[in-house]
Structure formats: structure tokens, C-alpha cells
Design a protein that fits this description.
6 helices; elongated; alpha+beta; GIY-YIG endonuclease; 3-stranded antiparallel β-sheet
Length: 195
């Protein structure tokens, strides 16, 4: 059982996915099993695999190392290959000390749009400022949440603001201690789905 850093390389366009594992053989099997079943959680890698086929991808070990070095080494290779930049690779993020992905804004927006389409949800929505009647149109929950926070309409975490927008757009009842109610406004804005 080898521990270390690996890449999955597209032999046609040379893009790579960088990963780490305490069991490289098991990780190799699991990646390609998910890709073959079309259920890989990295949609960018999955789409490319579907397009180019299994025979055009390789699994290569970059470095064998101790488990305590995995995070630093993985981030080193992600930066070295620039694999978290869409034109060079398939990584959606770097990794923090808790083995959690650290997504950049570009990836957050792309994931938001992808999940909206995958779940057959709305594609665009508008927020209309109640005081000024200005209308703002957004393609993702990330964009809308960033607008509300940046302009002082919301003070919560971006994740919570996105959840509130999502609930409002879907007409989900909010627990107000009395059987819940459907929000009519969202952070001093009216909202509307545009499709």
C-alpha cells in the first residue's frame, strides 16, 4: 500500500487532475470505476472522460511520501501543473489542512450553474431593489449572494445567503417558530425566476 501524490492525465489535451491518497492503487481503481459509471463528483473530469474515452487517460504516480506530507505536496503539484486553472487541468480547488477543497470564485460560479442545470432548476433570476426599483439579473446563486453582501444588504456567510436566496426562489417555507412562512422578499429585494 503506497501513499503519495498522483495525476490523472488526459493524453490528448494534456490536462491533469492532481490528487493524493494513502492507498494509491485503491484510489486509481475508485477514480476509474466512478468515471466508467459516469458518477464521478468532478464534473469537468467526467465530461472530458466521456468525450475522449478511457484509453486516453492515464494514472501516474508523481511522488511517494508520508501521509503527513500529503496536503502540502498535493497543493505543490496543483500549483506546479496549474491544474486548478480550467485551461490546464481538472482540479476544482486546492486543499486546506482539513482535507477540504478551497474553491476560487470562478469555480464556485461554474459549480453553481452546473448544479442548477443538473437539478433542472432555474437558470437565471432577478433581484429588484425595493427602495430604488433597480433590477439585477444573476446567472448563479454565488453572483446574487456576492452582490447582496458587497452592497450591505446581507451580513451572513455567503453560504447562508445563497441558501436564503435559493429557498426564496423555490418558495420553501422558512421556520419562523409558527409552522413556517414563505418569504415574499429577500434582503430588501423582490425576487423572480427567469427561464
Amino acid at each position: 500500500m503506497e501513499t503519495g501524490i498522483y495525476i490523472i492525465k488526459n493524453l490528448i489535451n494534456k490536462k491533469v487532475y492532481v490528487g493524493s491518497s494513502i492507498n494509491l492503487n485503491n484510489r486509481n481503481y475508485k477514480h476509474f470505476w466512478m468515471l466508467d459509471k459516469n458518477i464521478h463528483d468532478n464534473f469537468h473530469l467526467q465530461q472530458s472522460f466521456n468525450k475522449y474515452g478511457k484509453s486516453n487517460f492515464s494514472f501516474e504516480i508523481c511522488e511517494i511520501c508520508n501521509a503527513t506530507e500529503l496536503i502540502n505536496k498535493e497543493n505543490y503539484y496543483i500549483n506546479e501543473y496549474k491544474s486548478n486553472i480550467m485551461e490546464f487541468g481538472y482540479n476544482l480547488a486546492t486543499v486546506n489542512e482539513f482535507r477540504r477543497n478551497c474553491y476560487n470564485e470562478e469555480v464556485k460560479i461554474k459549480l453553481s450553474k452546473y448544479n442548477l442545470q443538473k437539478n433542472k432548476n432555474f437558470l437565471k433570476y432577478s433581484l429588484t431593489n425595493i427602495a430604488t426599483n433597480e433590477i439585477f439579473i444573476f446567472d448563479s446563486l454565488v453572483e446574487g449572494a456576492n452582490y447582496l453582501i458587497k452592497n450591505g444588504f446581507a451580513k451572513g456567510s455567503p453560504k447562508n445567503v445563497r441558501m436564503v436566496i435559493s429557498n426564496c426562489l423555490r418558495g420553501i417555507k422558512v421556520d419562523n417558530g409558527n409552522n413556517g412562512s414563505i418569504r415574499k422578499t429577500c434582503y430588501k429585494h423582490n425576487f423572480r425566476i427567469i427561464n
